[in-house]
Amino acid sequence: MKNPEEAYNLEGFGVDDVLRRIMYATGLRTQAQLAERLGVRRAAITDAKRRKAVPAEWFLKLCRMYQLNPVWLESGLGPMRVGEEAPQPEPQRHKGRPVLNDSEGPFHLDEFAFIPKVTAVPRMGPEGLETDAQVEGYFAFRQDWLRRKGNVSQMCLMRVAGDSMEPTLRDGDAVLLDQSQTEVVYGKIYVVGIDEGVVVKRLDKRPGKLVLVSDNRQVYPPLEVALNESVSVRIVGRVIWLAREIF
């Protein structure tokens, strides 16, 4: 274990994956809860993600409090907790990289990103959706596919409700959101925070106002929102993909 004054450089592991393992192992639901448990400001978590380095003191504290295996915490390999057996045999390796095998051949673990599925409860502030979102679980996507669509570290999944975006989006659909894409591109679909609520709409930007457009226009006419201090409006990110269950 490192000196508490040092920091773990997670460039090779992915700081988001490490933080997700921390949340999973500790049962904490938000970054605000994690910051409180560590005795730091919430901004310190955001700063660690930006620097791609987690203070060794955090690792020491979490490993001691939850009996976590530091190797698992860093890489996801081996047992989660000290004294436990690994849940599965150590992955095979190809050219030094861990792989999974199926009938179609080997798959490298680092070719996948685990995207959180969240309950959209955004805070009206600069931190972004994920700081206050409740994480329900994680879903694996190929890294190369995600990179073609946007910033992988800023992506999350959320479920939409209502019929205002039918037929494009239906009640219960899951959408993939890139929180780094907040510049309005006419006709694209965005998640927008308005005061304490969150909506999914197509956007058009006009002087001093934002126009929220539903696809189900016969029922939901366009809504103009003034960009002033009386209403808190924030573009959380752009919808870049959707998934739908077929019954």
TrEMBL record:
Coiled coil: none annotated. GO terms for biological process: negative regulation of DNA-templated transcription; proteolysis. Keywords: DNA-binding, Hydrolase, Protease, Transcription, Transcription regulation. The keyword Transcription applies. Residues 30-73 form the HTH cro/C1-type domain. One of its GO terms (molecular function) is serine-type endopeptidase activity. One of its GO terms (cellular component) is membrane. Transmembrane segments: none annotated. This is Putative phage repressor.
